[in-house]
Design brief:
Elements: H1 7-11, E1 33-41, E2 45-53, E3 56-62, E4 74-83, E5 91-93, E6 101-113, H2 119-125, E7 127-134, E8 138-145, E9 156-162, H3 189-193, E10 227-228, H4 246-249, E11 255-256, E12 263-264, E13 267-271, E14 281-286, E15 290-297, E16 300-305, H5 316-322, E17 328-336, H6 345-353, E18 360-370, E19 373-374, H7 380-392, E20 400-402, H8 410-419, E21 424-429, E22 437-446, E23 450-461, E24 464-474, E25 477-484, H9 490-502, E26 504-505, E27 522-525, E28 530-534, E29 548-553, E30 598-601, E31 604-607, E32 612-614, E33 623-624, H10 625-639, E34 648-652, E35 662-664, E36 676-678, E37 687-689, H11 695-701, E38 704-709, E39 712-713, E40 716-720, E41 722-729, H12 735-751, E42 757-760, E43 766-771, E44 779-780, H13 781-798, E45 803-804, E46 816-819, E47 846-847, H14 866-873, H15 886-894
Parallel strand pairs: 10-12, 13-22, 18-20, 45-46
Antiparallel strand pairs: 1-2, 1-6, 2-3, 3-4, 4-9, 5-6, 6-7, 7-8, 8-9, 11-19, 14-21, 15-16, 15-17, 17-18, 18-19, 21-22, 23-24, 23-27, 23-28, 24-25, 26-27, 28-29, 30-31, 32-33, 34-35, 34-38, 36-37, 39-40, 40-44, 41-43, 41-46, 42-43, 42-47
Helix pairs in contact: 10-11
């Protein structure tokens, strides 16, 4: 067929102003069809999806990007054909020019038409089925032209749809789009826009072997001494799930080079819930250490980190052992082994701090170069065989060891790894080439969830480290994902604290709607430290659960720290094996079916999750223990600042509000481990303290329906942290009178310079709450109580027909009792957002003042409705900023 004209493409562009290719340059031929996906930040961010056909790229603009979820059909608008050399374009198009903005080579690879129809007929008929074999996109897809849109029209709309297969997901189909790095240069959109980093180079043949016609993408093949990224291997069309036959790969030969490259961007693995239990995959131990690249050339050894940093001095014992090796580049992991010969990350850091590299071991798992042969286009199985042979000849080194792989049952391998205390396993396609960047040819399955996070702040208690505030990169922002509350031994604190103090700053680094507020014991950090944590997964709102600190990492760049999402793996088809439902994403909280008798929320297993605690929540449906735990999961991060560091009493009703109830002031024998415990002056028994959001799931598990914390300053039981005015109306008082009383108190507090907030009590009254400064400006309880009494006494004196400030029931008829007694050392008040053990499952709802008006109905705020209302109104958002010194207010109110 004749090559289609590119006249439309050329007329839209001024090639004296834009660096886009004109289409005149000849590109390497390829026996297979190529595709490219370019992320394009023009007037609107979109993804340009391009398929090679008849000498050009047929092109579509996909507004929201490709989705791995077959149920998520993405609009793809057909645009003009592009020249093939556009497949190597990455850079910026000047503003004002057509398509002005930043362009990234987001994915690329080979595509194969599917079905019995010819490709030309499929294009013409608007139903093109195909398979992608890219770095990011794989598996079966279809482009379907929408009804009424004609081929070649001015604006032809298609739908890009993922077929259901091993590479598809159910939910979380956009997780891949967060991988904001070029497959050609490794750069981010920001780096491309700023012109930083190395640009991709033109097409090059993947092999110099005579008769090898296949050319593959290789835009960033390095010159000698430069970083390099490997191309994907040309995968045979007949490759099946059973694995490649030797004859199919016989034509793949190593590439000869003049000199070894300085560094090769490593291949990375994608996280999966379960390893692939299929033939053609090998399974290796996942090491808990530092990724390393060992380069030996002319009897000089260099050890680099995964980012290319030269750490030879830090690993000098390993480098010394490698001097005798022939010229090579080895991909590996450096670890420290404990007494059981199990990798231990803390021991690795200790060894590096003590400069004892002789205690470390390099586990080699891939051979990228041998002599002047570039082995990356060879299959994994062949590269590993050559690596084993190379290392077996170096018997003198005990610090450099070969990593074998198993091809047996994947889940059995993972179970064995977990049993002996390893981190997990890495599964690799044995027929695949080595491809720099993250790819689904390498998959990792962990025994316990792990994640890297950026530290954005830290909290103290009594001058010592209490917790770390963690974040990840998401949408160009550092987004807060929760606190790390455990894992700090004396040795860790001694090493960590000086680094935190050095990076302390005034402004919070977190952005987004869930950024934590400034509090008296929070110190912000420059977002430069990366911590590795263990945790129990993600909450539905994207927060970490039960996070424990492992160590700091200095071998990674903060810009690459994102929430690691897992992809589903299709289980092997075994007749006898029961089907297991997998999570599509770690952001889905796993819960068992009713028949299983247990559910897990925030890492806490609930016994009898479907036991009814309230007969109904105003909707005729019972509220179960599971409902209560999910409620806490939704609102827990909002509640936590009002609970942390304060003794908390619990109203428990294990059999629901219709069963026996009791008030628990102190910790009891066998109290859950997620609770914290604090002793206060004059009391031998410790109090319960809720300092982490996961503890709220434990609250639900033990049937605690109400939370009643002290109103003290955080971690300071001897000082007042807030004033609480409890407006308690007599039965014959209308609620609108309570609303008026709340505004009366607010006005009086504002006159003396105090800021206050309002919440329902979950009953017939309201609470007016005033936050106070803590630390050096904190006030003692007698002062706070006397001030609150003075405010209430003045109100009762000014309006004796409306208010009274004593508890006499005989005098309360028709009036509101202004209860100031909550402001005492051991007194409590129901926590904001705490449910109440009353009919209808009401909650103590935080309110914005404009809603505190006639018509306000406290029965509207229930365990079912509160989370949605909270998200809509965002009340108390300035609570922390509203804290004031009480001393100034006392001076004003007592002034004649």
């Amino acid at each position: 067929m004749a090559k289609p004209a590119l006249s439309v493409y050329r007329t839209k562009r001024d090639f004296t102003k834009t660096e886009e290719p004109s289409g005149e340059q000849r590109v390497a031929s390829c026996s297979r069809l190529r595709f490219v996906v370019q992320k394009h930040a023009a007037r609107q961010l979109h993804y340009d999806f391009r398929l090679e056909w008849q000498g050009v790229f047929k092109s579509w603009a996909v507004a929201r990007g490709p989705s791995l979820d077959p149920a998520d059909k993405r609009l793809a608008v057909e645009v003009e054909d592009h020249p093939l050399d556009y497949g190597d374009f990455e850079g910026t198009i000047p503003q004002g020019e057509y398509g002005g903005g930043t362009v990234m080579l987001w994915d690329r690879g080979l595509w194969t038409p599917e079905g019995t129809k010819s490709t030309a007929v499929a294009f013409q008929g608007g139903d093109l089925k195909f398979t992608l074999d890219g770095d990011k996109l794989t598996g079966s897809w279809v482009l379907v032209r929408m009804r009424g849109d004609k081929f070649g029209g001015k604006r032809t709309n298609w739908l890009l749809i993922k077929h259901r297969d091993a590479s598809s997901t159910t939910g979380g189909g956009d997780a891949l789009l967060y991988e904001d790095r070029s497959v050609a240069s490794g750069r981010t959109m920001q780096q491309i826009a700023q012109g930083k980093g190395k640009r991709p180079k033109p097409f090059m043949l993947a092999t110099t072997t005579p008769g090898a016609a296949d050319a593959v993408w290789n835009s960033n093949r390095a010159e000698a001494g430069e970083p390099a990224s490997a191309p994907p291997a040309p995968r045979p069309k007949s490759a099946a799930a059973k694995g490649p036959k030797a004859a199919q790969l016989a034509h793949v030969k190593p590439v000869m080079v003049k000199a070894l490259p300085k560094f090769i961007e490593p291949q990375l693995a994608k996280l999966v819930d379960r390893p692939p239990d299929l033939a053609g995959w090998g399974h290796e131990v996942k090491f808990d250490g530092y990724r390393a690249q060992l380069k030996v050339e002319k009897h000089q050894a260099i050890v680099r980190t995964r980012k290319g940093l030269d750490w030879t001095d830090r690993f000098r014992a390993i480098a010394q052992d490698a001097i005798a090796f022939p010229d090579c580049i080895i991909d590996a992991e450096i670890v420290a082994l404990d007494e059981r010969q199990i990798p231990n990350f803390a021991a690795l850091q200790a060894a590096l701090s003590a400069e004892k590299s002789d205690q470390l071991v390099l586990y080699a798992f891939d051979l990228l170069f041998e002599g002047r042969e570039d082995l990356r286009t060879l299959p994994t199985s062949e590269r590993k065989a050559r690596l084993e042979k190379l290392l077996s000849a170096q018997i003198s080194s005990k610090r450099i060891r070969y990593v074998a792989h198993l091809q047996s049952n994947a889940e059995a391998v993972l179970a064995s790894a977990c049993k002996i205390g390893l981190e997990g396993i890495i599964s690799k396609k044995l027929a695949a080439a080595y491809t720099s960047g993250r790819s689904d040819r390498w998959l990792k399955a962990k025994c316990r969830a792990g994640q890297e996070v950026i530290l954005g702040g830290w909290t103290t208690q009594g001058g010592t480290l209490r917790s770390l505030l963690a974040g990840v990169n998401r949408g160009g922002q550092l987004v807060y994902v929760g606190r790390i509350g455990t894992g700090y031994g004396r040795g860790v604190v001694k090493t960590l604290l000086p680094k935190l103090q050095k990076l302390t700053r005034e402004k919070s680094p977190f952005e987004g709607c869930n950024a934590p507020p400034k509090e008296s014991n929070v110190r912000w950090l420059k977002p430069e430290l990366i911590a590795e944590i263990e945790f129990e997964g993600w909450t539905g709102s994207g927060m970490i659960r039960q996070a424990a600190f492992k160590a700091l990492r200095d071998d990674k760049d903060p810009t690459e720290v994102v929430a690691e999402t897992s992809i589903m793996q299709k289980p092997a088809e075994k007749k006898a094996a029961p089907k297991r439902k997998l999570r599509a994403s770690p952001e889905k909280t796993p819960t068992a079916s009713p028949a299983s008798g247990a559910s897990t929320i925030m890492g806490v297993t609930l016994s009898k999750p479907h036991k009814a605690l309230w007969p109904n929540a105003g909707d005729g449906k019972p509220v179960t223990k599971l409902d209560l735990a999910r409620f806490y999961e939704q609102v827990g991060d909002w509640m936590l600042p009002h609970l942390v560091g304060r003794p908390c009493s619990l109203l428990r009703a294990p059999d629901g509000i219709e069963g026996q109830q009791f008030f628990q002031r102190h910790a009891m024998a066998g109290s859950p481990k997620l609770f914290d415990f604090v002793k206060v002056r004059g009391d031998k028994a410790p109090y319960v303290q809720i300092d982490r959001v996961e503890a709220l799931a434990t609250v639900a598990q033990i049937g605690a329906l109400e939370l009643h914390p002290w109103n003290c300053a955080r971690n300071d039981p001897e000082s007042a942290g807030r004033l609480v005015f409890d407006l308690d109306p007599a039965p014959d008082v209308k609620f609108e009178a309570v609303v008026a009383a709340a505004h009366d108190i607010r006005e009086r507090l504002q006159k003396v310079g105090l800021v206050c907030f309002c919440k329902s009590t979950g009953g017939k009254g309201l609470h007016v709450v005033t936050p106070l400064l803590e630390g050096k400006k904190a006030v003692a309880w007698p002062v706070a109580k006397n001030f609150a009494h003075l405010i209430c006494a003045q109100m009762a004196q000014d309006s004796p027909a409306k208010y009274l400030d004593n508890m006499s029931k005989a005098k309360r008829s028709g009036r509101i009792f202004l209860d100031y007694l909550r402001n005492d050392r051991t007194a409590t008040a129901v926590a904001v957002l705490s449910p109440r053990a009353r009919e209808g499952a009401p909650v103590s709802m935080p309110l914005i003042w404009r809603d505190v008006k006639k018509g306000l109905n406290p029965k509207d705020f229930t365990l079912r409705t509160a989370p949605t209302l909270l998200a809509k109104s965002k009340p108390w958002k300035d609570y922390a900023a509203g804290a004031r010194a009480l001393a100034d207010a006392i001076k004003r109110i007592t002034r004649p």
